[in-house]
């Protein structure tokens, strides 16, 4: 395979590789992790970042290790057959940004929910906090940027949109996405045999359910 | 063997080595925010450098020893008393069954570490005993200590050690942090390195807000989320940068304008609101060389320093 990846230095012990899309990032990350030699291999939406042990490896040696790994064939991310349905209570206290988002998009809340529940989605990435899920495939009509001012506290189970994706907050945490609803689906359980039930590449669909109306 | 918490302090948690290698699943490092102080404290009581100990933020706890034990205080300067008798930082102290250790508010710096001979028992979750509060992982039920908690300790007696003078880190209200420009550090964001910053009120294990001039960034809120790490300096569109610390999320969508070098990341655990910060620009290899110089210096007292810093 010809060399088609460029990397950048992100610090004294961090290198990042740019890729086209989330499936490519997940595939490359799996490839680098399986080859070993890195302290962390972290896929992003259009990048993979590796952290190396600067106590033993110079920056140029790390770059050489990365370049060598990139010159090998990289297996694509396996297609997932698994389909998950995620129940969402939209709007109100569960989705405090929904009215504002609808106003900016020129949609009614009912129109927004109908569009959001009509699409089929694919999990792009898991990360940020344990079990936070980045879901790709958001309808173009629902595209809004992140909030300019991040919230200090977002409730666990929040479903949010930003930058053409739906995100799901497994935990209460700070966050900058626009909150549209909440789900009761368990996104992370450290005690479970599989703490991370949602994995990159899985397919999901959203379903609107009536809330308790807190 | 155990200790009982009489007063928990402001936010006291069990910390240790970080939770490494799981960032691709969104699991942050956690662990001691100031791992150098953790290592020094454990060293004094004869422990491996990264075994579980207490990390207290800004206001220390009051503890009762339920058996004879040894402990050591390292980190932010603080007034401490064992049964009313003053106890110094940086030395191993013997406690008898029933003794009460009181620690006050830190005078400078943010975090006090209290190590116990034999280490503390803690829940190992996802590969580490470190407490990660946002997901209630590790430590004692994944939470900060509360009055009445009883924590089991290992059984070991410690030799009466003191940290040599030359291995006692200075903790002040002004910090110089070596850092490399980040991947989204365009011309205007480079002003980060040219000015003095003040640590804002939002300063905890997640991260530290920096107050100073407004930086110009231009991602339009559409930067694709990418990996971030402890020490990453991000700047949202409001132009107000913040530094990520040990509990911060693993990916972020705000421009990464700098990365604090590994050699200085442990200092983040001692920054407190109102402290002054200056960033010193380094290229990657220069920062790596300085890391190795730091390791060479500390190895005499902490042979395994490169496993914790």
Query: What would the principal axes of the Cα set say about the shape of chain A?
Result: elongated
**Residue runs with pLDDT of under 50 for 5 or more positions of chain A:** none
Beta strands of chain B, count: 20
Task: Indicate the mean pLDDT of chain A.
Answer: 92
How many distinct beta strands of chain A?
13
Structural features, described:
Chain A has 214 residues and is of the alpha+beta class. In chain A, 21% of the residues lie in helices and 29% in strands. In chain A, a hairpin with a 2-residue loop joins strand 9 and strand 10. Chain B is built from 2 helices and 20 strands. Chain B has helices at 35-44, 284-298, and strands spanning 2-7, 11-15, 53-57, 62-65, 69-75, 78-82, 85-87, 92-95, 100-106, 111-116, 150-152, 174-181, 197-203, 207-211, 226-227, 232-234, 242-244, 251-252, 256-260, 276-281. In chain B, the strands form 4 sheets. Chain B has a 7-stranded mixed β-barrel with strand order 12-19-16-17-14-13-20. The mean pLDDT of chain B is 95. At the A-B interface, strand 3 and strand 4 of A face strand 15, strand 18, strand 19 and helix 2 of B.
List the helices and strands and how they pair.
The complex is a heterodimer of chains A (214) and B (309).
Chain A: E1 7-9, E2 14-18, H1 22-35, E3 40-43, E4 47-51, H2 59-70, E5 83-90, H3 98-105, H4 109-118, E6 121-126, E7 133-136, E8 151-154, E9 158-162, E10 165-168, E11 173-175, E12 178-182, E13 203-208
Parallel strand pairs in A: 5-13
Antiparallel strand pairs in A: 1-2, 2-4, 3-4, 5-12, 6-7, 6-13, 7-10, 8-11, 9-10, 9-12
Chain B: E1 2-7, E2 11-15, H1 35-44, E3 53-57, E4 62-65, E5 69-75, E6 78-82, E7 85-87, E8 92-95, E9 100-106, E10 111-116, E11 150-152, E12 174-181, E13 197-203, E14 207-211, E15 226-227, E16 232-234, E17 242-244, E18 251-252, E19 256-260, E20 276-281, H2 284-298
Parallel strand pairs in B: 12-20
Antiparallel strand pairs in B: 1-4, 1-11, 2-3, 3-10, 4-9, 5-8, 5-10, 6-7, 6-9, 12-19, 13-14, 13-20, 14-17, 15-18, 16-17, 16-19
